[in-house]
């Protein structure tokens, strides 16, 4: 444990990085995948399970927690860690993405964004300062700047305007964050799919000398190649001694390739959302338990997995649960999926340490490509 927020680079293999983020609430092994606990819960999971699967950190959402139960109430109840019984680090996003994507009515200007809640229609105002204030009330360990995330495709002028305003908002967030020992504020690189804007954004944020940097506005529908091209532009500009976080990513293949481009941290709702809809991630690739072919298949998802959901339950039973809309089906598949993601991250870290990351990538992708063999 440490009383300060620190990042230490332990090994590299090409552009892939193995490191550790030290915080007063624990160490985050990188590359790291952060399960998404939007409203203080990783959907369909006990947080004890999430911890036991190897998650060093989870993500909370400022927008949703602001609407309910409210940041002031969470603060009165001892902060988000105490409220949800999670002792390890928590990263909170700024709420900006949800404001832009969920609110049906919003008005944005230099001061911030005014919007109607998607829950009850109540009017709220989110400024850079208020976003940081809310994250402080939640008592998160890593806080994100408020930014404007433009959906792609978009006009270059619109992308540039939003990127420049996001830089100004980052400056205001840094002032609002002040000096919080043991905690960090990350800036968010924007710039859409335009390399020069990505580079300008990264350079401007680097000048602010923040404790970490995120890459935002990607994995929003653009081809994977575009996302990786933007990482090739962005990562070399960012300081090597600071952690790099690719927001909202993603599929196992996205993660494998993004690590190879220099990313340290990831988050995504995909493991739990897919689980609730009957899709399992495994070393064989994706397995859709809704398909009739599984109705009489007594094999588990993966007999070699350390996760009981993958190892001890038959595909026939999982198929039955999903087709019957039983809650247990989504719970078991979410458990399996988060276990697979954490096993993947452990394999990534081990491969970088041993200098064989390219081989690990090829072996993992080959397993997905071969797919799941039919029952004998």
From TrEMBL:
<keyword id="KW-0671">Queuosine biosynthesis</keyword>
<comment type="subunit">
    <text>Homodimer. Within each dimer, one monomer is responsible for RNA recognition and catalysis, while the other monomer binds to the replacement base PreQ1.</text>
</comment>
<dbReference type="GO" id="GO:0005829">
    <property type="term" value="C:cytosol"/>
</dbReference>
<feature type="binding site">
    <location>
        <position position="190"/>
    </location>
    <ligand>
        <name>substrate</name>
    </ligand>
</feature>
<keyword id="KW-0808">Transferase</keyword>
<dbReference type="InterPro" id="IPR050076">
    <property type="entry name" value="ArchSynthase1/Queuine_TRR"/>
</dbReference>
<dbReference type="InterPro" id="IPR004803">
    <property type="entry name" value="TGT"/>
</dbReference>
<feature type="active site" description="Nucleophile">
    <location>
        <position position="267"/>
    </location>
</feature>
<feature type="region of interest" description="RNA binding">
    <location>
        <begin position="248"/>
        <end position="254"/>
    </location>
</feature>
<keyword id="KW-0328">Glycosyltransferase</keyword>
<feature type="binding site">
    <location>
        <position position="147"/>
    </location>
    <ligand>
        <name>substrate</name>
    </ligand>
</feature>
<feature type="region of interest" description="RNA binding; important for wobble base 34 recognition">
    <location>
        <begin position="272"/>
        <end position="276"/>
    </location>
</feature>
<dbReference type="InterPro" id="IPR036511">
    <property type="entry name" value="TGT-like_sf"/>
</dbReference>
<dbReference type="GO" id="GO:0008616">
    <property type="term" value="P:tRNA queuosine(34) biosynthetic process"/>
</dbReference>
<feature type="binding site">
    <location>
        <begin position="93"/>
        <end position="97"/>
    </location>
    <ligand>
        <name>substrate</name>
    </ligand>
</feature>
<feature type="binding site">
    <location>
        <position position="217"/>
    </location>
    <ligand>
        <name>substrate</name>
    </ligand>
</feature>
<dbReference type="InterPro" id="IPR002616">
    <property type="entry name" value="tRNA_ribo_trans-like"/>
</dbReference>
<comment type="function">
    <text>Catalyzes the base-exchange of a guanine (G) residue with the queuine precursor 7-aminomethyl-7-deazaguanine (PreQ1) at position 34 (anticodon wobble position) in tRNAs with GU(N) anticodons (tRNA-Asp, -Asn, -His and -Tyr). Catalysis occurs through a double-displacement mechanism. The nucleophile active site attacks the C1' of nucleotide 34 to detach the guanine base from the RNA, forming a covalent enzyme-RNA intermediate. The proton acceptor active site deprotonates the incoming PreQ1, allowing a nucleophilic attack on the C1' of the ribose to form the product.</text>
</comment>
<protein>
    <recommendedName>
        <fullName>Queuine tRNA-ribosyltransferase</fullName>
        <ecNumber>2.4.2.29</ecNumber>
    </recommendedName>
</protein>
<comment type="similarity">
    <text>Belongs to the queuine tRNA-ribosyltransferase family.</text>
</comment>
<dbReference type="Pfam" id="PF01702">
    <property type="entry name" value="TGT"/>
</dbReference>
<keyword id="KW-0819">tRNA processing</keyword>
<comment type="pathway">
    <text>tRNA modification; tRNA-queuosine biosynthesis.</text>
</comment>
<feature type="active site" description="Proton acceptor">
    <location>
        <position position="93"/>
    </location>
</feature>
<dbReference type="GO" id="GO:0008479">
    <property type="term" value="F:tRNA-guanosine(34) queuine transglycosylase activity"/>
</dbReference>
<feature type="domain" description="tRNA-guanine(15) transglycosylase-like">
    <location>
        <begin position="15"/>
        <end position="367"/>
    </location>
</feature>
